[in-house]
Amino acid sequence: MSNEQGRIFRDAWIAGVTKHYPGEPKPGYVAPWEETPDWERESAAAVYEQVRAFVEFSEGNTSKLSREQKGRFVALCWIAQIYRHIPDPKPSYVADWDDLPAWQQETDADIFERIEGVS
Fold first, then answer.
1. Could you give the 3-state DSSP secondary structure of residue 13?
2. Which of 3, 9, 39, 69 keeps 20 to 30 A from 33, CA to CA?
3. In Å, how far are 20, 44, 55, 94, 115 from 102, measured between CA atoms?
4. What gap in Å lies between CA 59 and CA 82, rounded to an integer?
5. Residue 117 to residues 15, 63, 94, Cα–Cα distance (Å)
6. What is the mean pLDDT of the chain?
7. Cα–chain-centroid distance for residue 46?
8. Plot region of 95 (φ>0 → left; ψ -120 to 50 → alpha; else → beta)
9. 94 with 82: CB under 8 angstroms?
10. Residue 3 has pLDDT above 90, yes or no
């Protein structure tokens, strides 16, 4: 897993939070890559790779997915990383798609589309 891939994910997250979050986001939501905890950096790179592989294996047909489907994929991959790194996470860290706030759903879809657009 590369730092570059993790940075692309993190940059897409920050852009999405900045665009969709109502009001002022928590500082941790928009912290730069250098201030992101190691486990989050590793998780960002892992989810990037999962999305990238999904796009490649579908032979580009992910473009036919809805934004919701794309966002759900990112959210589910992220939840798996949470369980990998946090033995007993808070319920909000592993909330199902329907329980996520709209800003987070939109941000997850943006992340997928950003990764999908990488050549």
1. helix
2. 69
3. 8, 20, 24, 15, 20
4. 28
5. 15, 10, 27
6. 95
7. 10
8. beta
9. yes
10. no
The answer to whether 71 and 97 are in contact (CB under 8 A) is yes
Per-residue CA distances from 51 to 10, 27, 87, 94 (Å): 14, 26, 24, 18
Token output for 85: 């790194």
Mean pLDDT (whole number) for 76-82: 98
pLDDT of residue 2: 73
Q: How far apart are CA 51 and CA 21, in angstroms?
A: 23
Query: What is the domain range of residue 64?
Result: 3-116
Split into its structural domains, the chain has a count of 1
